[in-house]
Amino acid sequence: MVIPVGDDNGQKMVRIRKGLNGSLTEEQLGDFDFVPMLEGKNK
Questions:
Q1: What is the pLDDT of residue 1?
Q2: What is the pLDDT of residues 9-26, one digit of tens each?
Q3: CA separation for the pair 43, 38 (Å, rounded)
Q4: Label partner for 29 (CA 20 to 30 A): which of 2, 4, 15, 20?
């Protein structure tokens, strides 16, 4: 799963992977500024 984590002041891209044994690994991929989706434009 890849998700943005943060607030309006900045976000980080985080990748979370589940291993074969059920363990979770979190990897920070860097700083990003995400643009919110516009209503009616996300088709």
A1: 79
A2: 788 888 999 999 999 999
A3: 10
A4: 20
Confidence of residue 4 (pLDDT cuts 50, 70, 90): confident
Q: Edge to edge, what strands does the sheet with 24-32 contain?
A: 2-7, 10-18, 24-32
Q: CA 6, CA 34: separation in Å to the nearest integer?
A: 10
Structure tokens at 25: 């690994």
Predicted model pTM: 0.60
Tokens of 18: 């589940």
How many Å separate Cα 36 from the centre of its chain?
A: 13
- For residue 34, the one-letter residue type is F
